[in-house]
């Protein structure tokens, strides 16, 4: 059964001088536990679609359902990881990680213990009492992951969460996030400009085109790659084949923009 369904989604932005169609007739569904990436040329509506899935933006056309309900009624089951970690600089890592639980009035002995255990699991043991400025970019993103996971969301919306990191840290964090999301059976939608990242982390890649933003093609990542970590996937022939196929499509889309 589908966990997310999007039917004929369209979105127009109205400005004083023009109407811009950011998305037109976008339909897809995502199963529970699936990892799906959205890629495409700049301006094809990826961020708009993520905002619609988050419930922050209501599409001008069509309908989205998450677990059978409109996204704005499902906000408590949606977690985010963004390019910036948005940790509060004046709070310790522990306080930052517990903040969502506190705001949701879910903070108790058990939820606190499991959030702190999660910090250990992702290699942040010993930094709980430190402030974000004392941590590297990769560690701060791991803390942001812990904060997101603490409230136990069913769906994670990932908006270029690795793009501000150096290459080595990015590859390590891709592996970590992938491993955690699979272990906890989360559903994830990732927006990225990095085709390698999209293929190596996903079950499916949704390629969008511009003018107007629309779903161009859907690519299934071969089954035998799904048991591997993103790092391992990158050295497989099937990965290179799929990379070349989608790359060609992307080049054609860029030329026809
Ligand atoms: N608030 C807004 N008002 C008017 N137009 C907007 C607004 N937000 C986005 N757009 C337009 O809608 C289209 C889709 O934008 P969107 O940011 O969703 O694309 P994107 O694929 O995420 O782009 P990028 O890859 O550059 O982040 C673009 O043409 C953009 O200029």
Highlighted features:
257 residues, alpha/beta, Rossmann fold, 6-stranded mixed β-sheet, 8 helices, 9 strands, 37% helix, globular, binds adenosine-5'-triphosphate, transport, AAA+_ATPase
Q: What features would you describe in this structure?
A:
The protein has a single domain, classed as P-loop containing nucleotide triphosphate hydrolases (Rossmann fold), CATH 3.40.50.300. 37% of the residues lie in helices and 25% in strands. The protein has helices spanning 46-54, 93-103, 109-121, 137-150, 167-183, 195-201, 230-233, 237-255; strands spanning 2-14, 19-31, 35-39, 61-66, 78-82, 155-159, 187-191, 204-209, 214-220. Helix 2 (93-103) packs parallel to helix 4. The longest helix has 19 residues, at 237-255. Adenosine-5'-triphosphate binds next to strand 2 and helix 1.
Short précis:
With 257 residues, this protein is an alpha/beta fold. The chain has helices spanning 46-54, 93-103, 109-121, 137-150, 167-183, 195-201, 230-233, 237-255; strands at residues 2-14, 19-31, 35-39, 61-66, 78-82, 155-159, 187-191, 204-209, 214-220. The structure holds adenosine-5'-triphosphate (ATP).
């Amino acid at each position: 059964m589908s966990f997310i369904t999007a039917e004929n989604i369209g979105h127009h932005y109205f400005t004083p001088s023009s109407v811009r169609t950011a998305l037109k007739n976008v339909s897809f569904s995502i199963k529970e536990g699936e990892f799906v990436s959205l890629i495409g040329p700049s301006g094809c509506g990826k961020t708009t679609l993520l905002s619609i899935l988050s419930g922050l933006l209501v599409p001008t056309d069509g309908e989205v359902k998450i677990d059978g309900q409109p996204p704005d009624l499902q906000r408590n089951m949606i977690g985010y990881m963004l390019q910036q970690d948005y940790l509060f600089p004046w709070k310790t890592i522990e306080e930052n990680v517990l903040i969502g639980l506190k705001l949701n009035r879910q903070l108790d002995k058990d939820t606190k213990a499991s959030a702190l255990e999660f910090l250990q699991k992702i290699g942040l043991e010993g930094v709980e009492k430190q402030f974000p400025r004392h941590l590297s970019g990769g560690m701060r993103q791991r803390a942001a992951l812990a904060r997101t996971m603490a409230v136990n969301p069913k769906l994670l919306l990932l908006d270029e969460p690795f793009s501000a990191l150096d290459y080595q840290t990015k590859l390590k964090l891709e592996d970590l996030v992938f491993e955690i999301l699979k272990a906890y059976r989360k559903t994830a939608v990732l927006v990225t400009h990095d085709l390698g990242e999209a293929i190596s982390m996903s079950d499916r890649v949704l390629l969008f085109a511009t003018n107007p933003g629309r779903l161009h093609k859907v690519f299934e990542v071969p089954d035998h790659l799904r048991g591997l970590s993103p790092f391992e996937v990158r050295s497989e022939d099937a990965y290179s084949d799929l990379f070349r196929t989608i790359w060609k499509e992307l080049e054609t889309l860029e030329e026809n923009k």
